[in-house]
Please model this.
Amino acid sequence: MKSIRLAAACLLLGGCATSSLVLLPDDEGHQGSVAVLEADGKSSESIISQGNSRTKLGEANANPQPLGEKGLKPEEAALLTSLPPPAKSFTLYFDQGTTTPTLESQSVLNALRAEIASRSGPQVEVTGHTDTVGSEEDNDRLSTQRAEEVLNWLVSQGFDRSLMLASGRGERDLKEPSIDNFSSATNRRVEVIVR
Amino acid sequence: MFRTPIAIGLTALMIASPAFAEIARIKQSSGIAFVERNSQQLKPAPGLQLLAGDRLVTGKDGRMSLTFVDNTRFAVGPNSRIAVSEFQYDKTRQKGSFLTQVDRGSLAVSSGKIAKSDRDAMKVRTPNTLLGVRGTKFIVEVPE
Model:
């Protein structure tokens, strides 16, 4: 009787609720998992891997319950809606030995500009790459120049320099693995991540 | 005479401590919300750069959203107190470690590259639990 009254008081006041975890699939529909490493001060080996489930935390043996027809609480749905948009990647390709984007990449620049403009508090990471033609030192320099070329273009379009970071990786991160001194249009690129 | 060792000590601290590097950026906020850094309270305007150790605090109806440099995304709900206790990320190797402490409130997470890099590289602590995140989207709620 006492416990029923306590439970009723908890429901009324919302004060005795315990911590909980709602596990969901990611944006691509993949289901990951969350391990309970410690519960109530003791180590645990429970793994929660059931998607669309709710688990009370603090118990050594996690017992996920399906969200069922009721689904998410309104405040949980609101929280998910306020997650920022996922990071988006863009790749621009360059003519051999130059910092000039290929003709086809011009439209990517426009898409990039639109994406940055659409975001609140954006951060832009610009990384330049080369193929394996030429020396490593020259390619480090060229890859940095390619990244800076893109960054400077974005600045010319009105974006603040403080939003962006440019760096060059030379021929260290080949998209298409190749022997030395191999001309590759795939590897001559600048990758841009917009967050 | 004591100046040189102190200067060297400071330089070493700045190089060793990743706390000076940007770890995330505020995207949006509303209601009563602020970022606590040491004893300062910062307004979470869009674009504010966060550092490791920062605390995200919201009042009734307060909200905040942010994206980390490893692509992890956070949405903080009302009446929350959440600390990013530890955040290290090596952009080149796409590896790192990430510990978030949820003292109270609610937090939605869409995990990023750190969670994918090594088993339990991303952890979330609540007052009674330590969780290891293995690449997914989830909500942690800690009532007062």
Summary: The two ends of chain B are 53 Å apart (CA to CA). Residues 3-16 of chain B form the longest helix (14 residues). Chain B has one domain: 21-142.
